[in-house]
Amino acid sequence: MFETLTQIGLPLALIFIMTGVGMSLRPQNFHQVATQPKAFFVGAVAQLLLLPLLALGVIAVFQLQDELAVGLFILALCPGGTTSNLYSYLSKADVGLSVSLTALVGFVTPFTLPFLAAWAMQQFLGAESLLQLPLLKTWLTLLVVGVIPVIIGMLVKAKFPHFAERAQPQISRFSVLVLLLLIISIAYDLGDTLWHYLLLSGPAALALNLLSMALGYGLGRWLLHSEQQARTICLEVGLQNGTLALLITTGILQSSAMSIAPSVYSLLMFGSASVFTWWALKRGTR
Question: Where are the domains of the chain?
């Protein structure tokens, strides 16, 4: 059951989810990136560079070891997902910027994640570890589940705009359901060792989640002087595509232990994003 879910069900679900990201894109999103590149550049640098560095700092401070450290670092290499787009809408952030960052950073990820993840495995597991990341397979998998579906979604949006609009809320709910099902399956697969891993990785996952959201919001306020864009970058940097991280750790590497930190993070980020949204709406858009 667990192997079927991770090898077949998870890639298919992720293809569906990323098609939804493509269906949320509009030509105006790319026009906005071209005419106002600063906000996109700040968000992309925070996502692709600062977040992995922050993850390494958290791993060092909390002294995470072996698979737990690799799992948390792989999560930090992932782009945002439909969850960040949803919370950007709920918190009255810049939704166009959110969708642009999710999609375009997602196009870059297949070329950065395999090599950085392989480096992390050598760093934290040692060169003699039996666990090795197949670079070509990982790259092809990320293209198939993360890039091509976005392009298909954009084509669907252009051809059937009304269908794309109606499908968006359903896809967001589906992504949450898939993530929860995966986490339950991983917990069952780990059995009695689950609580041990939770105690080890939980504080680090919480710290990374809160620090990354604070980093994104602070950079947005400092460099962009825009409350809406600051909220967007906060959510894009703080809400990672946990489903993609679990595809790498469970589907490709087949390591339940490596999946613990992404699973814990994915659960915590819903709580932190909800609190942030409540705070943002109470504060208003001034």
Answer: 1-279
The CATH code belonging to domain 1-279 is: 1.20.1530.20
pLDDT computed for residue 211 by the predictor: 97
Number of Cβ atoms within 10 Å of the Cβ of 129 = 13
* Residue-wise pLDDT tens digits, 268-277: 888 899 999 9
Burial class (CB in 10 A: 0-12, 13-18, 19+), 118: middle
Instruction: State the Cα–Cα distance between residues 42 and 184, nearest whole angstrom.
Output: 35
- Write the single-letter amino acid at 32: Q
DSSP 111-179: HHHHHHHHHHHHHHH-TT-S----HHHHHHHHIIIIIHHHHHHHHHHHH-HHHHHHHHHHHHHHHHHHH
Q: Which of 119, 113, 132, 267 has its CA nearest to residue 187?
A: 267
Distance of alpha carbon 76 from alpha carbon 262, whole angstroms: 9
Confidence class of residue 71 from pLDDT cuts 50, 70 and 90? Answer: very high
Instruction: Compute the distance between CA of residue 148 and CA of residue 6 in angstroms, rounded to an integer.
Output: 20
Neighbours of 31 (CB within 10 A): 12
Residue in this structure with the two tokens 């397979």, named with its chain if needed? 137
Q: How many CB atoms lie within 10 A of CB 174?
A: 16
Residue 58: pLDDT band (50, 70, 90) is: very high
pTM of the model: 0.88
Distance (Å, whole) CA 251 – CA 143: 15
User: Which DSSP symbol is given to 36?
Assistant: S
pLDDT of residue 8: 67
- Contacts of 248 by beta carbon, 8 Å cutoff, 6+ apart: 74, 113, 117, 133, 138
